Amino acid sequence: MSVLEGVEPLPEGWEDLFETNYHLLEHIQTIIDEKGNDFYPESENVFRAHRLCHPNKIKVIIIGQDPYFEGSANGLAFSVSEGCKIPPSLKNIFKVIKTTLQRDSICAKDGDLTRWAEQGVFLLNASLTATPGKAGGFKRVWDGWTLRTLAFIFKNAENNDIVEDLEEEEDGDDVAEEKSDKDFLPITILLGRDAQAFKKYVTGPVLESSHPSPLGAHHGFMDCNIFNETNDILARHGLKKIIW
After folding, report:
1. Residue in 66, 183, 194, 223 annotated catalytic
2. Residue 162 within a domain
3. pLDDT tens across 41-85, in order?
4. Is residue 159 a contact partner of residue 107, using CB atoms and an 8 Å limit?
5. How far apart are CA 113 and CA 185, in angstroms?
6. Whole-angstrom Cα distance, residue 214 to residue 60?
7. Whole-angstrom distance, CA of residue 221 vs CA of residue 208
């Protein structure tokens, strides 16, 4: 298996990132080969977060750890493929959404967070691949790619075109002029220590809590209000809220 197979065609909007750092992906592939050349998700889904979110339309970044178990991973942080059992961390995410937003998540039935990604939520795992039967098998291997991805997003934020996503009001044209999104930087949600280690590489609003896994959820996550807080920030910029 090769992560390089998942690069072509280059994800729209991310071409410069992939072309400039292709050597880094080759190095990562070398490490994967040394570890046994087996990983998940499938090659075509390794960069699925990039394919679903154009960098100039990212409103929210959520950093996860590594993909869920073999067969359920679909390339998006905390997400599973439709038809797979919803893991405990994602169950807790859905519980907090229901408690704080007073309704079920639009993804609660199947655990596939694609509908979040399509609204501009960039669901990035710190490790884009995992070793079958061994959690964290590629921990730190992808750090360089993650840092370059974050740098690329914030460097290009000034060129965002989220203005198309401004909330419609009766005087919509005036609102668009008055609430220009040119000063908007993506909101970053960091859940748990591993994600929070990337905080110094993030520019713009940051929301933090403990990890939603059973081991960390009751150290703050289950009582957090990050989904409402995220939408409040978007609303202040005149942008459409995420339908969680």
Report:
1. 66
2. no
3. 999 999 999 999 999 999 999 999 888 777 788 999 999 998 899
4. no
5. 22
6. 24
7. 9
Percent of the chain residues past pLDDT 70, beyond the cut: 87
The full 3-state SS of 121-158, as one line of letters, equals EEEEECCCCEECCECCCCCCCCHHHHHHHHHHHHHCHH
**Catalytic residue list contains 66:** yes
Between strands 187-191 and 60-64, the pairing is: parallel
The residue type at 116: W
What pLDDT does residue 72 have?
87
pLDDT digits (tens, 9 = 90+) for 19-31: 999 999 999 999 9
- Which amino acid does the sequence have at 226? I
| % of residues, the chain, pLDDT over 90 | 71
114: which 2 tokens? Answer: 């694609």
Question: Alpha carbon of 209 to those of 16, 38, 63, 85, 128: distances in Å?
Answer: 32, 33, 12, 25, 22
pLDDT, average across residues 203-211: 95
Indicate which CATH number applies to the domain containing 64: 3.40.470.10
Enumerate residues 6+ apart whose C-beta is below 8 A from 18.
7, 10, 11, 25
For residue 122, give its domain range: 3-157+177-236
When divided into structural domains, the chain yields a total of: 1
